[in-house]
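Please complete every field before forwarding. Incomplete forms are returned to the sender.

SECTION A: IDENTIFIERS
Entry label: holo-351
Bound molecule: magnesium ion
Molecule representation: SMILES string

SECTION B: INPUTS
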Amino acid sequence: MSSFDTLRLDGVTRRFGGKDALSGLSLEIHKGEFIALLGPSGCGKSTALNCLAGLLPLSAGSIWQDDRRLDTLPPERRGFGMVFQSYALFPHLSVRKNIAFGLQMRHLPRAEVRRRTDEAIRLVRLDEHATKLPGQLSGGQQQRVAIARAVVLEPSLVLMDEPLSNLDAKLRLEMRTEIRRLHQSLGLTTVYVTHDQEEALSMADRLVVLRDGRVQQVGTPEELHTRPANRHVADFMGYRNLLPMRVTSVTREHVGVEGPGMTLTGTGVGDLFPGDEVVAAIRPEDLVVGEGGVPVTVEVVEYQGRELAVEARTDQGIMLHLRAAERPAPGDKVSVVADPARVLVFPGEPS
Ligand SMILES: Nc1ncnc2c1ncn2[C@@H]1O[C@H](COP(=O)(O)OP(=O)(O)O)[C@@H](O)[C@H]1O
Ligand SMILES: [Mg+2]
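SECTION C: PREDICTED COMPLEX
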């Protein structure tokens, strides 16, 4: 196994027909880290992964494994493992043979192939299915074979491109835990691509949020959750209320903003001045029924486990997403409030 301390992407750029699919991605990945590349469809996640894997040549930039330049090497000389959304198993080979295939290609001694294959089968909990063909397995089991096939080669880096998107919701949850467990127990370094914000937050040590081929923010789940760098990241992190407003006052701590039929006090992200057009971002769970806030009329109430998810409209017709502990009725007039620390005010740059 070619091990390393740091994998460094330096201005990695890939163009298709004059348009940047990925623009100047710079990132240091440390050994043992689980990195998620997160963003909506078309933002450049697969492009980034394929550049790392060597399946796509770079248009500009470079990739380094410690002091060794990687981007000029063909995929097979990078020593990475890949898992795709489609499992791409050999349909005519058993689970065991699928997993052993890569080891056999490397002409390892037969006993070692057997030992490592057994170990990989055990790790992904397919002991009882080792002699079956892929067609006799469920989607989740097939994806486990694909994962075992990648990790059995002890790659220095595992690349996964939306590996769970073909599975149903319950299995996706199970496989999340499974992949994280494997990552830890094998001491892997993993780059995981997903458009699912919850998946990324729950699995990764650090997230890289992409939009239109550009990095928006790199940070831990906690950092992205509580301090999104801009309104696009906020949008992705579950700040469902994104309200166009105008700054009325700025103090050292807080920013006063007003919009149609509502005034709020929030916390500025970046330099703001009275009169600026801004976007106030609030998560539904931070907007609650309380005295002296924004007057709204309740429209829809949904039971969601411990809480009620409520949609309500201001007098000027702006829809707000909030939470309530007690069930209001559609048509009820209530007032909603938010802690100024949880109302993030972003510059309203053109999108
Ligand atoms: N082979 C290609 N030829 C032309 N355009 C491509 C190609 N692959 C990707 N793109 C474009 O690059 C952008 C990023 O694509 P991709 O990396 O696949 O996004 P994601 O994986 O985040 O959904 C998209 O606009 C896509 O249409
Ligand atoms: Mg993709």
